Amino acid sequence: MRRGSMQKKGNRFYAVISTTDPTTGKRRRQWTSVEGGRKDAERKLTELLSSLDKGSYTLPHRTTIAKYLERWLADYARPNLAPRTAEGYEFIVRRHIVPALGSVKLTQLTPAQIQHYLGQKRSEGSRLDGKGTLSARTIRHHYMVLHKALQTAVKMGLISRNPTDGVDTPTCERTEMHTLDAFDLDRFLDAARGSPYYPLFFLLLTSGMRRSEVLALRWQDVDLILGRIHVTRALHSLRDGSIVIRDCKTQRSRRTVHLPGPATMALREYRHRQERLYAELGQDMKDSHLVFCRLDVDWTPEGPRCLLPNSVTHAWVKLARSAGFPGLRLHDARHTHVSLLMNNGARLEDIAARLGHSTISTTVDIYGHLSDQSRKEVADKFGEILNRRGAGNVGVPSEEIG
Question: Considering the domain boundaries, does residue 83 fall inside one?
Fold first, then answer.
C-alpha cells in the first residue's frame, strides 16, 4: 500500500501520508497543507515519512490548548503536586495562558507564538512597574508551567516535540537572601523570647525545616529522648482559606531531622507548658495532636486547630522589624540555618539530606554562593601548597620584571 504522496488542490500543495488510527485500527489519509510549491511539498512529504519510520509522527489532533490544559490540571497537576503549587499552576493557566493561547490547537502551537506570549507578558509587567503580579519571576513561572504541560503531551504522544524547547527561557534575578550570622542569631532569639511563637521560630532556625513541615508536626513525630523529628507531612493554606495537610510525596522530603541539644530542650519545655494548658482546659494531650496549635478556639474532631501559616509569617515579620532586621523573611530562617552550617564545615550532601532536597545539585544551585568561609579556606589551602615551595620560589623572578 502506498504510504504517501504529494497532491495539489487549486493553487495549494499538500503532503499526504497514510497512517493507522491507534484507537480504531483504521487506515487514514492525513493531509498536511504546505506553504510554497511542489518542491516544498516533496520535502515536507519526505520529512513526514521519516518521522513515521522513526515512530515520532503523531496524528493531527483537534484538541485546543485550553481543553488540553484543563485535562492536564485535573490528571497531572492536582494529583501529583503540592496543593499550593497546583493552585498556582491553575491560576496561571486560567488567568493568563488560556486567554492568550487557549484557542490554538495543541498540535499547531509554535515556539514563535510562545515567544510572543512571553514578550507580551513582559510588556505588561513593565507597565505595572514591578507592582503587579507580572514580575520577571512570574513570567518565568508561566514558561515553566507551559513547558511541564507540553512535556506531558509529548510523553502521551499527542505532539512530537515540545515547542517551548525552541523558546529563550525567561531569566530573572535570584531573590536576595537575608541571613543571620551567629551574633545576629543570638540577637534575634533574645528578641523573640517574649513571643508566643518563640518555640516555633527557634525550631525553624535550628532545624532548617520549612514552615509547612513545622506546622504539620504532631507530637508522635517528635522524639524528645533521642532529639529528632520525623518529617512526614506538610500543611498548606489555599486561596479560599481552606487548610490542607498532606503526606510528603518524595522519599527525600520524608526524612529524619536530628536536633541540636538546645532545640530539644526548648521543645521539652514547650511540651511541659502545653501539658499544663491542656490540664487547665480539662483536656488530654494526645500524640496525634499538633505540636504548634491553637488551644483558645473550638477544637476539630482531630484535636486543636492548626496555626494559620500567614499568621505565623506576619508574627515573624513584625518581630524581625522590632529586632532591627527589616526585610528578614520567614523563609530566611532556612537560609540562615544552611549558611551557618556551610560556614562551619558541614558537607553539602549532609545539608541536602537535612533540607529534604531531591539532589545535591539543588542545594548547590540555591546555596552555593553562601559559603564565603569555605571558599576562603580553599584559597588558604592552595596558599599552603605554594608556601611549601618556599617564599623565594613564589612570584615572578626579579630579572624578568621590566
Answer: yes
**Nearest alpha carbon to residue 20 among 29, 7, 10:** 29
Tell me the three state secondary structure of residue 194: coil
Flag the least confident range among 112-126, 127-141, 265-279, 351-365: 127-141
The set of residues, in sequence order, having a beta carbon less than 8 Å from that of 111 and lying 6+ positions away, is 163, 164, 165, 166, 167
Q: What is the dihedral of CA 364, 366, 369, 372, to 10 degrees?
A: -80
End-to-end CA distance of the chain: 83
- Residue 383 in domain: no
Helix (H, G, I), strand (E, B) or coil at 12: strand
User: What value does the CA radius of gyration of the chain take, rounded to a whole number of Å?
Assistant: 29
Whether 143 contacts 167, CB under 8 Å = yes
Sequence length of the chain is 402
- Tell me the C-alpha distance between 85 and 331, whole Å: 17
- Alpha-carbon dihedral 366, 372, 373, 374, rounded to 10 degrees: 60
- Please check whether residues 153 and 211 belong to one and the same domain: no
Q: Give the separation between CA 267 and CA 264, rounded to whole angstroms.
A: 5
Instruction: Round to whole Å and give the CA distance between 86 and 364.
Output: 26
- Do 280 and 302 belong to one domain? yes
- Kindly report the average pLDDT of the chain as a whole number: 85
* Same structural domain, 76 and 162: yes
- pLDDT value of residue 389: 57
Closest CA to 262 of 217, 207, 210: 207
CA 177, CA 333: separation in Å to the nearest integer?
10
Using a cut of 0.85, tell me whether the model's pTM lies above it.
Answer: no
Least confident residue range of 30-34, 109-113, 211-215, 244-248: 30-34
Same domain for 189 and 157, yes or no, is no
Query: What are the Cα distances from residue 372, in Å, to 177, 344, 368, 385?
Result: 14, 11, 9, 20
**3-state SS, residue 302:** coil
Residue 86 lies in a domain: yes
pLDDT at 396: 45
For residues 205 and 197, what is the distance between their CA atoms, to the nearest angstrom?
A: 12
Same domain, 203 and 295: yes
| Domain termination site, one of 139, 166, 193 | 166
Structural domain containing residue 33: 4-54
Amino acid at 198: Y
